[in-house]
Amino acid sequence: MNREKYNPMNHCKIIRRRTQSSTTSSTYVGGNLETLPIDLIVEILKRLPTKTIAKCRCVSKQWGSLLCDPYFTKSFLTCSLTRPRLLFTFEFGGKWHFFSSPQPQNGDEQVVIADYHMGFSGDWYKETCILANGFIYLNDRKMLKEKMERVPVICNPSTGQQVHLPKVLAKNKDLRSFLGYDPIENQLKVLCMTVARYREQTNSREHQVLTLGKGKPSWRKIACLFPHFPENFGTGICINGILYYIARRNLNTVIACFDVKYEKFRFIQIDDENSKLYWFLTLINYKGKLGAIVYDRSANGQLWVLDDPEKEKWSKHIFHLPDAAFWIVRSIWATDTGEIVWTRSRWTHPFYVFYYNLERQSVRRVEIKGIEGKVLMGHYRPEAILTFTNHVENVMLL
């Protein structure tokens, strides 16, 4: 029997054995060589914090191989989906910072502590910050060949990894970008398009897609048979492999739908006689369905839920933001339980996250601690802070 010795961790030695009669690996822990199957090891490790996973990857090549294996990263992600977090990100002191905290699941929690993940330098476009499957898409500004260019960047707050993507080669520099995730193929894709004005109509042009995790990333041109103009105030949202974003088509507001797997476009019409009086603020995931937060220039807002995508049928719910007006709110999302979540766009002390329950028509707030003491230290505060709900910790490396 051949034994391969791993580096020690916490005074334990781990030994893997592979028999000739079986492809199943067994692992021994400790001096008495008690058998632990690989599945059990994975079951234990996937419950550890992401920072501990990062340390374990440095123990040895064998540990690094185990913890980078797709089977483990997928198991860790599945476990992470059961413990969603709040993600906070902002630019301060020449860096883009990322914090996350447990996502309160009931009304008993009044204070949560945010953990610091990472901060990296850059001159970022604040309007482009998109979250999908634990990854963040940003646009950096860099001097390339004596010209200031946009450089797309994918980063993972859980691992600290950041990947600079190839420059988008396009005739027009006015770009719109979105990040989507295909759960079937377990692939992240970036959708990018240029925007051009022609005969008093502003439409997208030169649609391109970049697939992450498959060799050297490169942009591919794809066809879009439906001219449209993506709004520049929305970041879009990906639900079950469909990327949704707010757009204009023939001067009407529509919801653009991009199938991440098959790379096909379609559109959902907003058939409402008063739709031109509404301002579609953002799109959210409401209990697994597409939801739209709609603002009608009054104290009340509306949540439109797409109950039937095929027939394009919406249900509408009225709600009120008691402690914040729409024009000072930048981040509005929803939890898996159906609560609408929002934060003020500017930093305040104390900093609160507000939860609105549509069924009870009640509001609760949770104070977020740990951010100011870690980064701000009582000095100048960031102009804007972005908040995301249902953030999942993903330890996959690109």
Automatic annotation (TrEMBL):
Domain F-box, first and last residues per copy: 30-76
Listed InterPro entries: F-box-assoc_dom_typ3, F-box-assoc_interact_dom, F-box-like_dom_sf, F-box_dom
Pfam families linked to this entry: F-box (PF00646), FBA_3 (PF08268)
Name the record gives this protein: F-box domain-containing protein
Species whose genome carries this gene: Brassica campestris (Field mustard)
